[in-house]
Amino acid sequence: xxxxxxxxxxxxxxxxxxxxxxxxxxxxxxxxxxxxxxxxxxxxxxxxxxxxxxxxxxxxxxxxxxxxxxxxxxxxxxxxxxxxxxxxxxxxxxxxxxxxxxxxxxxxxxxxxxxxxxxxxxxxxxxxxxxxxxxxxxxxxxxxxxxxxxxxxxxxxxxxxxxxxxxxxxxxxxxxxxxxxxx
Length: 183
Prior knowledge:
4 strands, 8% strand, 183 residues
């Protein structure tokens, strides 16, 4: 004999020793509702997993580029955390951007160029439109005139990255982030 999980009366299981509820209609209704709840929970979990797989399978080049941009900007912030802000020279405190010297809108080919992106305060990057004059002065101090001129020449070169190349770059910068976080 077993005790019903709902009404606590004793009953003899009919089909399996795993039965938890007696055969009273209200107890069987509760059992059915719990099974339905568990089934819905399992379906929701399976759908969430399937949705993630579908999202990953249906990623386009733009999705991969956006992912790379987030990873690249994170790397820039970590790389420049001790160097000070590129435009105004203040110490990096709180939130700061990965500011582009040559804008992404005008020169999308320089989006991921390491000499084109540096830590920049939100005020300079967003409110002063990059504070380009000060950015250039400090960029020359930081990387040298030769690399700045090479960066200016790179503006003319197109950048066409395939999805595997974007994935490789993303993996590369994720590895660099891991190294910088351990320091």
